[in-house]
Structure to design on (720 residues):
């Protein structure tokens, strides 16, 4: 894990001091809300429906046990005892008081964290594969590059007032778990014909009102050129991105309007002036970051564990949990364990201070003190010995974190929706909870298999509904909440956008509609097909016919 | 308008000439890019300093052949949220090697002085009694920076390498 050195620490400490001064000027009336807004936004502080919300960066979704414990402390001391993990691997606190916000930032700085780049029209917190460093199919740990980008993008003097927010994601594996094709910039690490590792650079993807799959502007970028190339893309965007209409200001619209060839030409031309400059990454600078992501020393643990096999046979719930929530680890004898934050009684992604503390304890006991946040709004223990799972699972059960539903129908992504968000048209969380309640039988959930439901409360698509196998979008029809359904979206390496199936359904119909779609899938599926496979094979028509025939 | 230049509130000796007005007979003038391009020869013969006010959609490379004849370039922030002039400033300083006065005008906020200075600005059209104090505060706010710009500061990665090399010796 990356540890701040004295420079990184000074930087975040100075940032806290600066913000404390800005807040006190605001409280004293020396700054108007208009003048204060850009200052609080660059520190992750939003004004929401009921209170200030602070969004804290969790760079590339990696936390230490100590950091998670501090987040629990913040939840308890400055919030109402809860934190909300987001689809961008961050955490939000929904009930922050303005005069206490600088203290929260100081508490974060103490554990090498900050809220920089989590709001405003800047380069946002860079996200990565949540299995980074432990996935079997990985070429290189993408977090090395996310950290290099984090440093370069922190308070960048040229790119602090971009046309719109800017999101970068990095994957180091061919199986894309970071959704790189729906980011402003997606970086996919791969080997070229000479066997060197570099980046495919994908630009102009995104969800929101105008969902677009990103396009490749460079097939192979050598590692040492990463920052100069990013600077070239950002400069072209800063100069030419639209500023006349907030809904057309993302880079995807620029790429769409001028075309990918012209975009590529402008970036390459700009890059020629930058590539040999001070942004070029010397080998020892890369090495400095790389060695901090060296894997822990894994003691040898057995691959075949009799106690685990016995429990698997004895307890169906454990067997189910093993199947969905434990992924293969690159080191034999270990597994990657997903702790589900989707139990149905709270909002997807919510964790209590007590849960966070208990997870920190478990990470120390069973997982080299490391925790990950996934963009699917779950937490992960990335290095758990298989031999420890019979002890870990009951502990998770006590905490309510044992739901065996990773990537299943109840592992729903949902934005905060109308319950919290000023932009929303409809509620998201209660819809997610009602669907979870309907599919609460694990046997049924496992019978259905992999199925990703994603729910957004408005067209800004924070719940990523465009890339849900079943996407649900809240719309307002004459003051009533309706939900538009899309099918066939997917955010992997074979990314596709969902297509709208028909007229929106009323709030009291949405659970039945999902049931109906699942029923159609179960009737039509062939051996081994996931929902997405069946949908891709048969298309929209049958699903539509049966859905609206029932209505 | 008061001017904050190199950290001090200063007299502004420059006179802005609207496109449809005749140029004054003496003294330094600020012209639009169009006026400068149209009447370049006349103004060069006038024997007084020349400044050009660029819109944030103008291509700064248009001034490249004349940069050593131009004493002032004014860049524009129509709203503080419109950050195009930050790129224009860096290109002028770092790529085109412009060394004259680079002035920020428009919606210039005190809390943006530091990033403006980092991007290459050394003068600011700003109407605030506390501008000098804000400048000093901005200069003290940080002593570590991640990004290389033309501001003469070493970056954190550079300082880090320097330490590593010293430790290795």
């Amino acid at each position: 894990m990356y540890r701040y050195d004295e420079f990184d620490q000074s930087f975040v400490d100075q940032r806290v001091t600066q913000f404390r001064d800005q807040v006190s000027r605001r409280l004293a009336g020396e700054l108007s809300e208009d003048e204060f807004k850009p200052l609080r936004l660059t520190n992750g502080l939003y004004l929401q429906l009921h209170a200030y919300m602070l969004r804290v960066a969790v760079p590339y979704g990696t936390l230490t046990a100590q950091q998670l414990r501090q987040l629990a402390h913040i939840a308890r001391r400055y919030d109402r005892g809860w934190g909300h993990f987001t689809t961008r691997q961050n955490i939000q606190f929904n009930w922050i008081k303005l005069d206490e916000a600088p203290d929260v930032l100081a508490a974060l700085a103490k554990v090498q964290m900050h809220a920089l780049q989590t709001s405003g029209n800047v380069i946002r917190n860079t996200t990565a594969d949540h299995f980074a460093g432990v996935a079997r199919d990985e070429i290189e740990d993408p977090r090395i590059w996310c950290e290099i980008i984090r440093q370069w993008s922190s308070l960048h003097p040229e790119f602090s007032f971009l046309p719109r927010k800017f999101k970068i994601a990095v994957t180091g594996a061919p199986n894309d778990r970071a959704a790189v094709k729906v980011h402003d910039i997606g970086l996919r690490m791969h080997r070229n014909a000479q066997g060197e590792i570099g980046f495919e650079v994908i630009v102009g993807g995104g969800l929101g009102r105008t969902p677009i799959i990103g396009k490749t502007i460079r097939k192979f970028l050598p590692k040492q050129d990463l920052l100069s190339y990013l600077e070239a893309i950002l400069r072209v965007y800063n100069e030419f991105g639209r500023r006349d209409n907030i809904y057309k200001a993302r880079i995807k619209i620029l790429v769409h309007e001028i075309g990918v060839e012209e975009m590529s030409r402008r970036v390459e031309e700009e890059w020629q002036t930058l590539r040999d400059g001070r942004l070029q990454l010397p080998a020892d600078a890369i090495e400095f970051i790389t060695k901090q992501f060296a894997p822990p020393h894994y003691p040898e643990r057995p691959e075949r564990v009799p106690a685990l096999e016995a429990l698997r046979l004895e307890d169906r719930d454990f067997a189910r949990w093993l199947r969905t929530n434990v992924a293969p680890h690159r080191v034999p004898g270990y597994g990657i364990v997903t702790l589900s934050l989707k139990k149905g009684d709270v909002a997807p992604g919510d964790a209590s201070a007590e849960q966070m503390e208990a997870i920190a304890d478990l990470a120390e006991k069973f997982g080299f003190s490391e925790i990950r946040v996934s963009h699917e709004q779950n937490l992960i223990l990335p290095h758990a010995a298989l031999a420890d799972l019979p002890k870990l699972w009951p502990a998770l059960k006590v905490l309510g974190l044992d739901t065996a539903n990773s990537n299943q129908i109840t592992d729903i992504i949902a934005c905060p929706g109308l319950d919290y968000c000023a932009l929303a048209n409809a509620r998201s969380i209660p819809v997610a909870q009602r669907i979870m309640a309907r599919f609460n039988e694990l046997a049924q959930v496992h019978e259905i298999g992999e199925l990703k439901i994603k729910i957004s409360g408005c067209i800004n698509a924070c719940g990523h509904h465009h890339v849900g196998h079943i996407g649900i979008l809240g719309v307002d029809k004459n003051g009533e909440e309706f939900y538009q359904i899309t099918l066939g979206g997917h955010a992997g390496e074979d990314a596709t956008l969902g297509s709208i199936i028909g007229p929106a359904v009323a709030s009291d119909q949405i659970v039945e509609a999902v049931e109906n779609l699942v029923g159609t899938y179960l009737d039509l599926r062939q051996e081994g097909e996931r929902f997405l496979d069946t949908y891709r094979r048969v298309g929209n028509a049958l699903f539509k016919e049966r859905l609206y025939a029932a209505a | 308008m008061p001017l904050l230049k190199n950290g001090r509130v200063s007299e502004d000796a420059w006179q802005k000439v609207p496109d449809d007005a005749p140029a004054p007979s003496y003294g330094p003038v600020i012209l639009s890019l169009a006026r400068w391009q149209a009447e370049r020869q006349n103004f060069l013969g006038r024997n007084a300093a020349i400044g050009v006010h660029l819109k944030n959609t103008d291509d700064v490379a248009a001034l490249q052949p004349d940069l050593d004849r131009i004493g002032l370039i004014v860049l524009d922030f129509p709203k503080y949220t419109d950050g195009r002039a930050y790129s224009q400033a860096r290109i002028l300083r770092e790529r085109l090697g412009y060394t004259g006065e680079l002035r920020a005008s428009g919606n210039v906020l005190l809390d943006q002085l530091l990033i403006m200075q980092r991007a290459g600005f050394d003068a600011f059209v700003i109407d605030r009694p506390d501008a000098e104090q804000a400048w000093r505060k901005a200069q003290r706010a940080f002593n570590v920076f991640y990004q290389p710009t033309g501001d003469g500061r070493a970056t954190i990665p550079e300082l880090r390498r320097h330490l590593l090399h010293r430790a290795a010796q």
User: Anything to note?
Assistant: DSSP finds six helices and eight strands in chain B. The beta strands of chain B are 3-5, 8-10, 15-16, 29-32, 50-53, 70-77, 101-106, 123-125. The CA atoms of residues 65 and 125 of chain B lie 26 Å apart.
